[in-house]
Task: structure prediction
Amino acid sequence: MNGIRSVYFHEPSPKEIERRIADRPNPWFANQTPEIQHSVIETQRRYGLEIKRQAEAFGLPILESRPFDTLIDRALAALDLPVSS
Result:
């Protein structure tokens, strides 16, 4: 198959989204009120669901982002590419 192919990664857990944002080197998130932090997390969660919905509508592959240790192999398999050994 020639051309461009894609796979979409989705993180369904708000707690994991929070952890990933908090782990970023920019301290902006940590300096926000709990209400703003919750709003940021919820915005990211909803955006992810919308991207997932649109990808599903086009029949594009969607993978949960965890577990990380199998992410590359799962992405390759979803794209019908040889999986690393």
Remarks:
- The chain is about 50% helix and 5% strand.
- The first strand starts at residue 8 and ends at 10.
- Residues 19 and 25 are 12 Å apart (CA to CA).
- The radius of gyration is 16 Å.
